[in-house]
Design a protein that fits this description.
Elements: E1 11-17, E2 21-28, E3 35-38, H1 42-55, E4 58-65, H2 72-90, E5 99-106, E6 109-116, E7 122-126, E8 133-134, E9 137-138, H3 140-153, E10 156-163, H4 167-186
Parallel strand pairs: 3-4, 7-10
Antiparallel strand pairs: 1-2, 2-4, 5-6, 6-10, 8-9
Helix pairs in contact: 1-4, 2-3
């Protein structure tokens, strides 16, 4: 799909290879919510699927990492690559809404996410998980992934979960709210064909 303002597809494809991970990721911001996530970390794949589905992004990611150590490097590097892909796909940010926010309930949990595609990364994460793991997934990796995403995308990302008793529900609510907020922020505003900043650059 092409963007209304430029006629150019808002897509990107990035590769990241280190001694710890080997990642290939493609992104279409104007997609239909299709995800093909193969990171070797099942729960993280599940969260990426939510991000794509509720953001209406098409995401295809294949990652091979040092899972014999743990999931940390893989999750962190995939999130960093996804953030960089978002930054690349929106380009100079002309005509985007820039800000996005969403409150999403997931049974017992509520997640509030607000973000600004400002070009300046900042991360606030007020979340308490009642358990250290979700299955085999370390819950601390949720925060690490989202911090890396914010750094890669160059965005302010504020996440607050005022309550929740189930760790899976909390994480799922966060990723769904992130998807809705990001979808809003990258949406092209028909009334604004310029860069949404008094500075003239983001």
């Amino acid at each position: 799909m092409n963007t209304p303002s430029t006629g150019k597809p808002r897509q990107s494809m990035l590769q990241r290879k280190t001694r710890e991970t080997d990642i290939t990721l493609s992104l279409n911001l104007d997609g239909t919510g299709q995800a093909q996530a193969d990171t070797g970390v099942g729960f993280f794949d599940h969260m990426l699927d939510h991000l794509a589905r509720h953001g209406l992004f098409d995401v295809n990611v294949r990652a091979r990492g040092d899972l014999h150590v743990d999931s940390h490097h893989t999750v962190e590097d995939v999130a960093l690559t996804l953030g960089a892909s978002i930054r690349q796909a929106i380009g100079e940010k002309r005509g985007i809404s820039r800000y996005g926010w969403a409150a999403v309930p997931m049974e017992d949990a509520l997640a509030n996410v607000a973000l600004d595609l400002s070009g300046r990364p900042a991360f606030v994460f007020n979340v308490r998980f009642p358990t250290p793991k979700i299955g085999e997934f370390d819950v601390e990796l949720v925060g690490e992934a989202l911090r890396s995403l914010a750094n890669g995308a160059g965005m302010n990302l504020h996440i607050n979960v005022p309550y929740g008793t189930n760790s899976h529900h909390i994480a799922e609510a966060i990723f769904k709210a992130l998807a809705r907020a990001l979808r809003q922020a990258v949406t092209l505003d028909p009334r604004c064909g310029d860069i949404p900043s008094t500075k003239g650059v983001l």
